Amino acid sequence: MAEEINTTESAKIKQKELEAAGKPEETEDLRQLLITAVEAENYEDKLKLYDKALNLDPMYLDTWLQKGFVLDRIGRSEDALACYDRALEIDPDHLGIKCLKGFAYNNLKDFEKAIECYDEVLKVNSEDIFSWYQKGSVQENLGRYGEAMKSYERALEIDPTDSLIREKQMKLLGTIYKKGTLTDSPDSNFN
């Protein structure tokens, strides 16, 4: 009972502080909006909730990341990049944002920019297995099989137990053998 009174009094005090600061009553809880957005099944509903959250706090990094991720998933990669750029203004050293930008550029088929994003991460953290894997995948999309193989090999040096990367490497080897070429390899006699 005493706890309920303290909670009510705290809410009244907070409201008075908001009024004194000239801010309207905050009727939405930012974290609850984000939880609801994550649970929403419809991407458009998610986007509406992220916009509401950004109206409450435009400096909340996770909202920009989640909104960008949803936009990229529904094929609006240019808009996703704008969200990621905004997030980088808030936290310029956040490596995860740079990886997400790499995804978006890959979806836009701007493979060179995607590689640049992964390289930015790898300059800071050369042990980032995810960036090595994604870089290899993009290089493979460009037909640069030797470079892709090196990226996968580097990722496997970091984590030799990663079965997804090993599978990707095996598929690439199959592609190389079918095409009979590894022209960009420093060991062009590989075949």
Structure description:
It contains ten helices and no strands. The chain has helices at residues 2-20, 30-39, 43-56, 61-73, 77-90, 95-107, 111-124, 129-141, 145-158, 163-179. By secondary structure, it is mostly helical.
Structure in a nutshell:
This protein is mostly helical and 191 residues long. 74% of the residues lie in helices and 0% in strands.
Topology, please?
Elements (H helix, E strand, L loop, with lengths): L1 H19 L9 H10 L3 H14 L4 H13 L3 H14 L4 H13 L3 H14 L4 H13 L3 H14 L4 H17 L12
Q: What is the alpha-carbon Rg in Å?
A: 23 Å
β-strand percent reads: under 5%
Task: Report helical residue fraction.
Answer: over 70%
Low-confidence parts = 1-8, 23-27, 185-191
Most strands sheet? none
The total count of strands amounts to 0
Estimate the global geometry from the Cα principal axes: elongated
Task: Give the N-to-C terminal Cα separation.
Answer: 79 Å
Number of helical segments? Answer: 10
Q: Report the mean per-residue pLDDT as an integer.
A: 85
